[in-house]
Design a protein that fits this description.
It is a single chain. The chain has two domains: about 230 residues, ATPase, nucleotide binding domain (Nucleotidyltransferase, domain 5, 2-Layer Sandwich), CATH 3.30.420; about 220 residues, ATPase, nucleotide binding domain (Nucleotidyltransferase, domain 5), CATH 3.30.420.40. The chain is an alpha+beta fold. It is about 40% helix and about 20% strand. The longest helix is centred in the last third of the chain and has 27 residues. The chain is globular, with a radius of gyration of 22 Å. The strands form six sheets. It has a seven-stranded mixed sheet with strand order 15-16-14-13-17-18-19, with helices on both faces.
């Protein structure tokens, strides 16, 4: 019986999960959980990458203590961010967080590569956080660092390098950066050259399921374990989450609901045209050569930031927040989650109040009112972009599959069913981990096909359905929300 150990890194926390196949279902055990806390130093927001690698080592040690014999390890993380290595393979600097203010200069990059060229080549939604813009900012503000750099590794590739000593770039994570040709999955050296970035930074690309290498000998000695293979799962967390969608349908709509909400569908090839450009939909690489055609939406980030603010005043109970939200007046005030005013960390409750005040709406004051405002606004945002997805693809979706930690917000799930008028199938909650697990099992030969993997997740539990209720009450809300969006646009 082969057991795998996977690490799932979110924007605010990470976890190590051991998994195995038993009696036709997936058995999992959380071995280790830890926070992921960015650190601001000298006005720059960094990922604490060495502490996170320490947590990987802790997870391996705890798995050993729990009696787990690791047949394979894989991990997934958020997209776009990267580390730079020198010629000796040493990390030159802590990776900078995608929310750092350095990316504000991104429109200047269009002086070298037009927005239209960038999208037609890569199919990637134009966002300030994209790797291509981070590289431009680095060239502008710290060119000497780029000159000293020998290789660029995205965050999961960097962890894999720390584990194995092998420098490879996994396809799905590379696809997030607006640096690949969407149709071939190869490095877009036209854009790279135009921005003055040296080609030698970029490593060979491998597909999900590829073996990166064995755990290094020095780590085996340090951790007291035998060598085991490290695999490239779908290293981008959304790619892993989409692989975990428990459906047998070829055409399905999904929302990967976490710090970000990624709303889209799975396609056989990129969908790039004037309409997808104008609607700013993205084409990212998926497992098994698929394309994740989706829209990036600010998701649970706004609620998470509110909780962080409230925790400074004392303990915050999620049970009490949910109850207060449910008791608050429905459909009273809305925000536009994608508004840039909600992108940066800090002071989120105040920014929500300011937005409502400036748009002539009742200002939510209590925690319950603020929380309900966020959830209802997200549901309306989902409805807006589901309609866009249907228009752009020419497909009709009667069901929305929602995966990820956001499914624990039962009110949000019901609001989404009500706002869209569609059945919501919610689960699994640990979607990114589930996708990483099944890909590792596929790499080990324990599973054979993508369909078998999804069927396994579907019968392993944790799936809840929500049917639309009281949809008429949401019609006026949609009209009001649309006017808020027109103001933003």
């Amino acid at each position: 019986m082969k057991q795998v150990l996977v690490f799932d890194f979110g924007a605010s926390s990470g976890r190590a999960i051991a998994a195995r196949l038993e009696d036709g279902v997936l058995k999992t055990e959380e071995i280790h959980r830890f926070s992921n806390d960015p650190v601001s130093v000298g006005g720059v927001l960094y990922w604490d990458i060495l502490r996170l690698f320490h947590e990987i080592k802790q997870g391996i040690v705890k798995a050993k203590k729990a009696g787990v014999e690791i047949a394979g390890l894989a991990l997934d993380t958020w997209g776009v961010d990267f580390g730079l290595l020198d010629r000796e393979g040493r990390l030159l600097s802590n990776p900078v967080h995608y929310r750092d203010a350095r990316n504000d200069c991104f429109p200047e990059a269009f002086d070298f590569v037009s927005k239209e060229k960038m999208y037609s080549d890569t199919g990637i939604q134009i966002m300030s956080i994209n790797t291509v813009f981070q590289l431009y900012a680095l060239k502008k503000y710290d060119p000497s660092l780029l000159e000293r750099a020998d290789k660029l590794l995205f965050t999961p590739d960097l962890f894999n390098y720390f584990l194995t000593g092998v420098k490879k770039t996994e396809y799905t994570i590379a696809s997030t950066g607006a640096l690949l040709y969407a149709d071939t999955g190869e490095w877009d050296y036209e854009i790279i050259d135009a921005l003055g970035i040296k080609r030698s930074l970029f490593c060979d690309i491998v597909k999900p399921g590829a073996k990166i290498g064995l755990l290094k000998e020095d780590l085996c000695k340090e951790l007291g374990v035998k060598p085991f293979p490290v695999f490239a799962a779908p290293s981008h967390d959304t790619a892993a989450a989409v692989l975990s969608v428990p459906t047998a349908e070829k055409d399905f709509a999904f929302i990967s609901c976490g710090t970000w909400s990624l709303l889209g569908t799975e396609l056989d090839k990129p969908l790039i045209n004037e309409n997808t450009f104008n609607d700013n939909f993205t084409n990212e690489g998926g497992a098994f050569g698929t394309i994740r055609f989706l829209k990036n939406i600010i998701g649970m980030w706004i609620a998470q930031e509110c909780r962080r603010s409230w925790e400074k005043e004392g303990e915050v109970s999620m049970k009490e927040l949910d109850a207060a939200s449910a008791a608050s007046t429905p459909l009273r005030s809305f925000i536009v989650p994608s508004d840039n005013c909600f992108l940066a960390p800090g002071g989120m409750p105040g920014r929500i109040a300011d937005f409502c005040r400036k748009t002539g709406q009742p200002v939510p004051e209590s925690r319950g009112e603020i929380y309900r405002c966020i959830s209802e606004s997200l549901a309306l945002e989902y409805d807006r972009f589901i309609l866009s997805l249907e228009r752009l693809t020419g497909k009709k979706f009667n069901v929305i599959n929602i995966v990820g930690g956001g499914i624990k917000d039962k009110l949000l799930m019901q609001f989404t069913a009500d706002a869209t008028g569609k059945k919501v199938v919610a689960g699994p909650a640990e979607a990114t981990a589930s996708g990483t697990i099944v890909m590792t099992l596929l790499a080990l030969g324990e599973l054979k096909t993508r369909e078998e993997a999804r069927a396994l997740i579907a019968r392993s539990g944790g799936i809840t359905e929500y049917l639309p209720e009281n949809t008429a009450a949401w019609q006026d809300a949609k009209a009001r929300f649309s006017k808020l969006h027109e103001r933003k646009d």
